[in-house]
Amino acid sequence: MITLDELQRSTAEVGDSVHRTTISRILHKSGLYGRVARRKPFLKDIHKKCCLKFATSHLGDTPNMWKKVLWSDETEIELLATMRKSNTAHHPEHTIPTVKHGGGSIMVWACFSSAGTRKMVKIDGKMDGAKYRTILEENLMESAKDLRLGRRFVFQQDNDPKHKAKSTMEWFKNKHIQVLEWPSQSPDLNPIENLWKELKTAVHKCSPSNLTELELFCKEEWEKMSVSRCAKLIETYPKRLTAVIAAKGGATKY
């Protein structure tokens, strides 16, 4: 239940990147072959069941429990150009955001809780386990302290291989940080996705002309996210879980 790309990333995580063809050849010698045609629908069902299980098991959690969670994620933000629809006035409702030619994008990491957002970090180059642990070392505990989450806060991250790497999980253990068990492929369960969408809309309205401005506007708009908005996302989290259960682990309006 894993792709060649995922296997390759796992080998890179431990320091020895192995080529896809090498991995494939070794698997074939062992009698293991991929079944591309059937894998995606099957995995989709598995992901839905995992999301449903998570939602069901946490539906009875108290509101105070969710207030103790520090939510995190990474996202890519593109440098966009604005194109006006033909034969229309130059108003926001008549414009179409498009990827700026040669503009590129930036990758950022950030976290938030019901008490607000904390520092956003631009990721330089390719993210790996070591770089991820550096981000955690420099930002996680400070963010939890600033948000007054207390010592027994819970940290949320997705199941990206660099997040679940042995060295990373040992880091959490040494820091005595509880990590929330998280289902794979579950964007509807993470309220930070709502903030990402709002952030990208706000940054586009600032019309950054280069990557330096893009980073600046991203950080400024992230800091502007209101505490009341963050609190509302967490306050309504039980409704999000209920929606996931109603959808049997599938996509929801959230």
From TrEMBL:
Coiled coil: none annotated. One of its GO terms (molecular function) is DNA binding. InterPro entries: RNaseH_sf (IPR036397), Tc1-like_DDE_dom (IPR038717), Transposase_5 (IPR052338), Transposase_Tc1-like (IPR002492). Residues 1-59 form the Transposase Tc1-like domain. GO terms for biological process: DNA integration; DNA transposition. Residues 69-213 form the Tc1-like transposase DDE domain. This is Transposase.
